[in-house]
Amino acid sequence: MKLLTAAQTREADAFTIKEEDIESVDLMERVAKAFAGWFENKFQPTQPVYIFCGPGNNGGDGLAIARLLHQRQYKVQVYIIGDVSKASHDFKVNLEQLPKEIVQHPIQAEADIPVLPDGACVVDALFGTGLNRPVTGLYGKVIEQLNKSNNCITSVDMPSGLYTDSQTPEEGAIVQADFIVSFEFPKLAFLLPQHEQYIGQWHVVPINLSQKFISHVETTLHCTTQQDVKHLLKPRKRFSHKGLYGHALLLCGGYGKMGAAMLAAHACLRSGVGLLTIQAPPVGYSVLQTAVPEAMTLVDKNRKHLSELPQGIEKYDVIGTGPGLGTEKVTQTAIGQLLATSTQPLVIDADAINIIASSDRLKSQIPKHSVIFTPHPKEFERLVGKAQNDYDRLERMKEFCHKHACYITLKGNNTAIGTPDGNIYFNTTGNSGMATGGTGDVLTGIITAFVAQNYSLEEACRLGVYVHGLAGDLALNTVGEISMIASDVIDHLPKALLSLQQP
Ligand SMILES: NC(=O)C1=CN([C@@H]2O[C@H](COP(=O)(O)OP(=O)(O)OC[C@H]3O[C@@H](n4cnc5c(N)ncnc54)[C@H](O)[C@@H]3O)[C@@H](O)[C@H]2O)[C@H](O)CC1
Ligand SMILES: [K+]
């Protein structure tokens, strides 16, 4: 699914209005209906509803929502902030249509800001995608008061005060929304970790914007949905054999960290690889042979650490490396050889990232169009550099992926995947139970398996990250967030993959 900027959303509105020969206020009515439909499923009409409206179309939505909720027996009161005479045209149309039974409270000074009863149900319709400067003054005071109170806040389209697709200046007040109901597309701001305190649960409701516009509009930002992934996943051929699904090599594990190799190996096998070989130091030989009988094991000449590449390395279709490696000198040399000589795609994680990050020479040897890096935020910072904020981080990711013609999956709540052609795909699965040691090793194994099965590197990243998160979400039902460990994610991979194969 594409992610549109605020400007593109306005273009989509204008295109739809023209294509369908409707008025802009008709589109506002659609928005309000979509919101009210969601609201009815969430809140009972017994709860009084307080709707705060700003001067633009977000406020206009608020007024239309007030009318619709009133019709559906909710007890609604409306607070209107600022000078109504300067409000948008569609705001004014909806103000005229507001039923007389709905109490209107103008807020024109600080003294007018209400203290609502605890547990009130607030709808925030102050500002949406039209916000063009930080929120200060009276609007800022209203937002501060709403945030201070103990009420459940549902924001219309955007938490008011938050910029849709660029950094919000520090001086601006921002609503801390419990719920956000946005229209047609999620917004970039919802997906960035720095906005955690403003973004509760977000939901996207359709308003039938022009499909023609949506399919043609150009964007580098995308969100991977279940539908996208179902589309990507290829069925296995009936007359197939293991040779069709690739032979992967994992260069993982070291003294005291053989578990990382095991997790990556299990995940790789559960994700459909045809054959798997693991090369590990001798300390890991018997444990790997016992714990992962499906894999073949090669032994490094170094007792504790990766120090060499196996003979006949060309025969492997993909190499996954990093988990459990450590950063010994011998391992640095081996990773250098891997970059300089490999002919197949590489999935590079953990200490292998740290090794490359610490050497400009190694960075300059990253083979083009064949590497996927899977860093967590700290590893990312070492590899790509320190960013000022999440927007800056995405820009740096784009630059790095372009310069080295590589892929990066930046792990986090909405893992962001960068591609050499400048696209960014945000993931929509996963949960905070997965913030535990070993889940990254699992991801390395999964992505390696998808590359082995001949998915493109971009597809392997998107599928791998989605399936990994989905397995974590399924694990939530059985073990919960607190108890979840990396093995639980592996245990739920079969269910995750099965569910994606359902029509
Ligand atoms: N396709 C859709 O999703 C549709 C969404 N709709 C809703 O319309 C808003 C966007 O409306 P717009 O009028 O463009 O902008 P806002 O209401 O967000 O605000 C504009 C308004 O506010 C003034 N302003 C901006 N920043 C500030 C500030 N910091 N302090 C004070 N005043 C400010 C600005 O000058 C304007 O007067 C979208 O989010 C949806 O909710 C439509 O209903 C139709 C389709
Ligand atoms: K809002």
UniProtKB/TrEMBL annotation:
EC id: 4.2.1.136, 5.1.99.6
SUPFAM superfamilies: Ribokinase-like (SSF53613), YjeF N-terminal domain-like (SSF64153)
Residues making up the signal peptide according to the UniProt record: none
Keyword set, alphabetical order: ATP-binding, Isomerase, Lyase, Metal-binding, Multifunctional enzyme, NAD, NADP, Nucleotide-binding, Potassium
Catalytic reaction annotation: (6R)-NADHX = (6S)-NADHX; (6S)-NADPHX + ADP = AMP + phosphate + NADPH + H(+); (6S)-NADHX + ADP = AMP + phosphate + NADH + H(+); (6R)-NADPHX = (6S)-NADPHX
Family: In the N-terminal section; belongs to the NnrE/AIBP family.
Full protein name: Bifunctional NAD(P)H-hydrate repair enzyme
Gene: nnrD
